[in-house]
Amino acid sequence: MAGNLTIRIEKSFDAISPESWSRLSGASKDPSSGTPYNPFLSHAFLSSLERSGSAVPKTGWHGHHLLLENESGTLIGAVPGYLKSHSQGEYVFDHGWADAFERAGGRYYPKLQCSVPFTPATGPRLLVASGYDQPSTELTLAAGLQEVTRQLGISSAHATFVADEQLAAFEEADYLHRTDKQFHFINDGYADHDAFLETLASRKRKALKKERRAALENGISIDWLTGKDLTEDIWDQFFTFYMDTGSRKWGRPYLTRLFYSLIGERMADDILLVMAKREGKYIAGAINFIGGDALYGRHWGCIEDHPFLHFEVCYHQAIDFALAKGLKRVEAGAQGEHKLARGYLPVTTHSMHYIAHAGLRHAIADYLEHEREDVEQMTDYLAEHSPFRKGDRQQQNDHNEKDGEDTE
Questions:
Q1: Are 55 and 177 contained in the same domain?
Q2: pLDDT at residue 398 above 60?
Q3: Cα torsion angle, 123, 124, 127, 128, sign
Q4: What contacts 293, CB < 8 A, 6 or more positions away?
Q5: Structural domain boundaries enclosing 190
Q6: Quick check: 338 pLDDT over 70?
Q7: CATH number at residue 234
Q8: What is the model's pLDDT at position 407?
Q9: What are the angstrom distances between the C-alpha of 361 and each of 65, 99, 272, 354?
Q10: Together in a domain, 145 and 279
Q11: DSSP string for 309-358
């Protein structure tokens, strides 16, 4: 490539130096890097997905990580990538594209997926080492993805949950732009949860207070577990919750028991378990990851059903923790209009798609134009029906638009 740069493909994170990876944007905990730390981009998280057997060829995730190196072999940029034989575990749905292309005689799979497996959280996808020119390196990586796609002779490359500030690089490289929405809580400097509730309409505020009281009836209490609290016994209990709920919701949970042991060993201080206890036994829990400026809610599970407990464990407690730690926002994962009533506002998410086949590309481009309009209209509608008082709602929407540049 130009400037004596080369892109090579690495199949496993275990073959990539953790030290080199930790200097990349989003994966670095150094505040001077300019990009807030995203725990999902850490070497510890990504390698744990592979080592645990969660994101491996057997499950349809063939590691195909792009490494951009200079003439001395120094890692200056990277893209976490996977050759996928299906579209499961991505949260950006392209099954219709695959079906249409294959009915027309094409072969959609394998495709190149640039993402964090099983994780609908926005972050950098074009990772650049500190000290290097960000825009030009990002453009080189975006173009490199296209070249790898062409050389492999595959249908497409997809970068999902892309940070707003990286959209320009993909657009310059002529990727197609897709949008969707999530719900995030934006911390407007509230002193505590009660201060946040004061910004809501009176009827909504009373309803949430009643909901929180009801969730903790029947002698239920809540514990926050992080760091050394995350013992193997705790992980055993949480995995039981995950398997029970995941089996009913998805049919086959994605993550193995070993995955939790690995992240508990490698990144315990980046993890918050919110656990509900009744009669001396944990009955439900939610896992969250702690970033440089955000709390990322992922999944939850339970072995007892109690009214409103899901909302308390997943949403209200996450807000409490974010306010206590001074985090700017809570990203509550994919989907869920029910989050709106709990103070989580709609935020636009982005993915970028390179489609090699001209006919398929034209059809998808036309579809995406209409889909983006629908997403924008729905996002505006939902924002107008938020639980905030009129003046506070507008203030929250303004914050939401401003912070949307670095959120899901």
A1: yes
A2: no
A3: negative
A4: 36, 327, 328, 329, 406
A5: 184-346+395-406
A6: yes
A7: 3.40.630.30
A8: 28
A9: 24, 14, 42, 8
A10: no
A11: HHHIIIIIHHHHHHHHHT-SEEEEEE--GGGGGGTPEEEEEEEEEEE-SH
| Cα gap 156→145, rounded to integer Å | 10
In a domain, 390, yes or no: no
**329-334 and 294-302: which strand pairing?**
parallel
CA dist 376 and 370 (Å) reads 10
73: amino acid identity, one letter: G
In a domain, 281, yes or no: yes
Is the model's pTM score more than 0.70?
yes
Could you give the CA distance from residue 126 to residue 211 in angstroms, rounded to a whole number? 42
Instruction: Round to whole Å and give the CA distance between 251 and 333.
Output: 19
Domain count across the chain: 2
The pLDDT of 224-238, averaged and rounded, is: 98
Is 331 inside any structural domain?
Answer: yes
- CA dist 184 and 402 (Å) reads 13
Residues 166 and 231 in one domain: no
pLDDT at 47 over 70: yes
Please report the pLDDT score of residue 405 as a whole number.
Answer: 34
Q: Which residue reads 């200079």 in tokens?
A: 70
Strand boundaries in 65-114, DSSP class E? 65-69, 75-79, 81-84, 111-114
Query: Is 336 part of a structural domain of the chain?
Result: yes
